[in-house]
Amino acid sequence: MMNLFATPIYKKKLNLNLKELEDYCYHNQKNSFGRKISNHKGWQSLPIKRDLTLNSFYIELLNTLNDYKEMVGAKGHIILNDVWININSKGSSNIAHIHTDCFMSGVFYVKTPKDCGNIYFENLNAVNYNWNKKHFIDDVSNLYCNDTWSIVPEENTIIVFPSWAKHGVLTNASNNDRISISFNASLS
Known about the structure:
Layout lengths: L9 E4 L4 H13 L8 E2 L2 E2 L10 H17 L6 E11 L4 E5 L6 E8 L7 E4 L25 E4 L5 E6 L4 E3 L8 E10 L1
């Protein structure tokens, strides 16, 4: 069987110093107004510049992006377009969107309290009309019959996906912040 028009999502556990990254994110929030793009009520930084504080993060990020590039059979050198911080407090979310002018995008989770909002992906093929879940043995998690698919965020985990994949983040229902670092990359 061929699975046509798949959305390759790569999830990988890292081993970074989360306390150091959390402090960096809060320091950035304290010293910047941020921007509004896809975030609803949450705070999003302007693109952050590379500095030694994030050196371990950038090394792991580039290694992961290279792994993803090889898994999907792409070629070229990775160009990191931009990296930014998201801090979503209770009631914050991100509306569904895509990332333009890049090849791959993703998110690294720094802080993920329980019920802090799953990342979700929308299936651009309208399958639920005739491929209803009731027709499948596993009606909860069958990848063939869902219009959306969500992934529970986990601390110290990175998720990479094609930039064209429409995605969003559900509302943070916890009393604590969800902190993540997002990124876009191109190939030359």
